[in-house]
Specification:
The protein is mainly beta. The protein has one helix at residues 2-35, and strands at residues 69-73, 84-87, 93-96, 113-117, 122-126, 137-140, 146-149, 162-166, 171-175, 187-189, 195-198, 211-215, 220-223, 235-238, 244-247, 260-264, 269-273, 284-287, 293-296, 305-309, 314-318, 329-332, 338-341, 350-354, 359-362, 374-377, 383-386, 389-390, 393-394, 398-402. It is 8% helix and 32% strand.
Length: 403
Amino acid sequence: MRATLRTANVQIPKLIKLTAFIWTVSLFIVIVACGGNSSTGNSAGGSDSSDSVLIESGEKPAPDDSQGEFILVDEMKAARQLHSAIKLPDGRIFVVGGRGPGANLNNTVYESAELYDSELDEWTLTGSMVDQRHDLCASLLQDGKVLAAGGRGKLNMAIPTAEVWDPETGEWSQTENLNIGRDYMPCLTLDDGRVMIIGGEERDYALEATAELWDPSTGKWSQTTPMSAPRARHTATLLDDGRVLVTGGGKLDPPYEKTSEIYDPANDTWVAGAEMSTGRASHSAVKLSDGSVLVVGGRGKKLTSEVYNPLTDTWTKVGNTEIPRSEAFAVRMLDGRVLITGGIGLRISGEIFDPDTGDWTRTLDMHDTRYRHQMIVLDSGKILVIGGNGKEGLLAETELFTP
């Protein structure tokens, strides 16, 4: 009995030490897991604290390798985020502007532009803009030229200048300035060929309710009737009937707009649309094959997505994404499904939305985490993923997704 007690006296302290060690390790793991990772490269005027989330390691469920894969292709000449990308009529991809390395007033803002030839897998420089700009409006004109307008310039303030790139010469020519310098705004080319630029932030970071139209036949800007609410980081989608659907918007931190508005260029009027289920900013909107509009994600770690029917002015909730997606990028593929990739929180995965089922399925991972990037659907049906902000900094890398 005495020997048994002696053994117990030796073993109990060891057991206590081992238990304490296990609890210490467990507590450390919990603290690290809950801490998250703040995104880098914040936009001026606020922080990305509302979307600080864990780097995407070990997310479930597992990727579906039947959904396609990403391969690395030729790198751009410059690492860019907050740039614009357009597919030209000849199939080449045009990338312009954006922000380079550095922070605040010391960052690089690009005036350069590049062209990607998918047949050669090669990026080449073309003519540079007159002005440096990121978060700019870039829109393809009906004659194949490209309008670049607004954005944030070298002094970290919204600028009003506009210029046009000619693919025949590779050169830029200045056109009339916007009435108001603005950034963080969408723009699009209307069915009649005019370019519409909507809302955004002014030089003092106030949100704008105004919109402007640029007429390529005159090179002049004119202001439209203003929206009912000022907006930035919102979306604008050209509907099949020629009207424009605008959704959400806000600053970096909540509250975010849940309202929508519809602009009719035929009579210069805005009408209120149905409200979304939640406020959104820095979200994605994609027109589906049937003319409805899918809206997904947004700031505040949103998983939800919903579809707008312009014929009935109603929103219908559809499946959630597996992870939150803000400052991600989404495109409609040639088969009608929607691919979304990346997002704040250094997202490395993609997900595909099937309009027939209303569900999202995760793809295989990209080679780089990224947000504030661009995507373009090539004539081949493959999708080019371009630049952005990654785990190790800004990206010149581009990837090709094959569905």
